[in-house]
Amino acid sequence: MMMTMLLTLILSVSETKLLMRVMRRTKTLLGLRMTTVAHRLMILARTTTLMLVTLTEARKEKSVKKEPKKGLVLKGLPLKKKALATEEGSSKKKTQKKKKDPNAPKKAMSGFMYFSQMERDNIKKSNPGIGFGDIGKVLGDKWRQMSAEEKEPYEAKAQVDKSDTRMRLAITRTLSPCL
Q1: Which CATH class, in words, describes the domain spanning 111-175?
Q2: pLDDT (tens digit, 9 = 90+) per residue, 113-142?
Q3: Cys-Cys link to 108, which of 40, 74, 159, 162 (CB 3.0-4.6 A)?
Q4: Where is this region: Disordered (predicted)?
């Protein structure tokens, strides 16, 4: 009876009944005394309860906020990166971002950007009150539906702009010591 009470604390009623049935069959099949099986189950029940108590205590401790670590702390880095940064012999060094020349030319525009410049005003006139994002969606749909022949003038402008940008960048690099 005591064993049944212990088991019901840990297991549900149906699981306890099933376990008791298995214990009775085990006694007859293996020739073991019921007390031996009961003793083993009581040990199992004790360890399970201890495990449950330990688990709940661990959860309570985890929920309590920890104090911040004292000592050398690298601000702005997550904990894993802090460990990597303080680790000796790390092969990766932080590379600094290249300084950008303020006189350098901007990136060349694509054919779609030239198309967008030409068609944006037409879409605004035909759809007053349309949002910026919606205009972009409409422009994207129109661009996808255009054939290669229709895209050709915009792509030609983009090629000219690309070669012009390369030329200006080469000139800027020769004159500027920054790049």
Answers
A1: mainly alpha
A2: 999 999 999 999 998 888 999 999 999 999
A3: 162
A4: 83-109
